[in-house]
Every structure is written in structure tokens, then in C-alpha cells.
Design brief:
single chain, mainly beta, Jelly Rolls, 6-stranded antiparallel sheet, 3-stranded antiparallel sheet
Amino acid sequence: MFKLKLGLAAGLALTCLSTAAAEPVQPSQIMTQAEAKAEKGDGYVFYSYFTKPTFGTQDALTGVAVIEPGNEIHPPHIHAEEEYLMVIEGEGVWSLKDKDIAAKAGDILYAAPWDSHGIRNTGKKPLKFVVMKWHSKGLPVPVDPAVKAKP
């Protein structure tokens, strides 16, 4: 019995290692803002940092956004990935599941898959926030509840 368990554990470990080795993953590193890809839009700048798959994630995005007063990057939206947003400077309004809520420095929003969310700058100074979103490897992509299954 012990040999069977040991053999199963070794086989699982080799499978995991071979799978991990087959896909390039994000190495441990520090990225400066100067190294981040800057996307300038109408009333905002978005700095994209790490986007490669990691050992446990895919479809990842990490970044920092700076939104000028009276602007947003895009209207509230939905997607399959989980997402965290943290305001680090300024103030504005969160949109979460069609409700507007005041946003200020130190606040964090978590959006589950397919929940509508967003942020806009309603203050007088630039609003800066950090964003992290991803999909976990090994888990099925969540199905949008608005899409009805065909019989």
C-alpha cells in the first residue's frame, strides 16, 4: 500500500513538473513603472505590469491606472476572471452590480466572475488604483449566468 501511494505521489509530481515546464511562466522579478507598458487613453494612463501565466494563474493582468477628474477607463463591465481593485490616491465612485458606492484611497473592490464593476473619478485630483485579475489554472472558466444553456 505504501509503495502504491508513493508511486502515485511521484507520478503526480512528475506530471505537474512536466506541465509546468511545458508552459513558460512568469519568473519572480520586480518590474519598475518605467518598465511597465503604458497605454494612454482619453483622460487616463494605464500601466500594465505582469501579464504572463504563473504556476497557478492564466489570463492575468496586473497594473496601475491613473484617471483624470471626470473620467473613467471604460464603463462598468463584466468578465470571467476574478478581479481586485485598490484605490491608492484620489476619490471617485465604484460601480458594483449596478450600484454606485463612494471610493476613496485605501478602499478595495473584489469582483467575482460576471459581476458588473468599474470605477470613475469624480474628484478634483487624479485617481490612482491598482488592479489584479486572473483565472486560476485547473478550474473551469466560469459560465456567464446570463447565457442560457441550450437544451
